[in-house]
Amino acid sequence: MNSPLNRIKFKDVALGQRFFDPISAEYFVKQSADLAAMVTGIGDGTIPDEFELDDVVGVES
């Protein structure tokens, strides 16, 4: 069973932390203040994607 996800803003995700993006329904790892790389689905963690600071994402509790 998966852990429930806590909703937080992208700006509050720690660098290197894995999080869930409800828009794409995929997991990402935060790389910088506004970039993260997808690590599930078609993502291999190498191509950064831009996020807004106030985007709501999910992190495992």
Give the overall average pLDDT. 94
Helix content: under 10%
* Beta-strand percent range: 35-45%
CA(first)-CA(last) distance: 13 Å
The computed structural class is mainly beta
Describe the structure.
This protein is mostly beta strands. It has strands at 5-9, 18-21, 26-30, 35-38, 48-50, 56-60. The strands form 2 sheets. A 4-stranded antiparallel β-sheet has the order 2-3-4-5, with no helix packed on it. The protein is globular and about 25 Å long. The two termini are 13 Å apart. The model has no long low-confidence stretch (mean pLDDT 94).
Describe this structure in a few short sentences.
With 61 residues, this protein is an all-beta fold. The protein has strands spanning 5-9, 18-21, 26-30, 35-38, 48-50, 56-60.
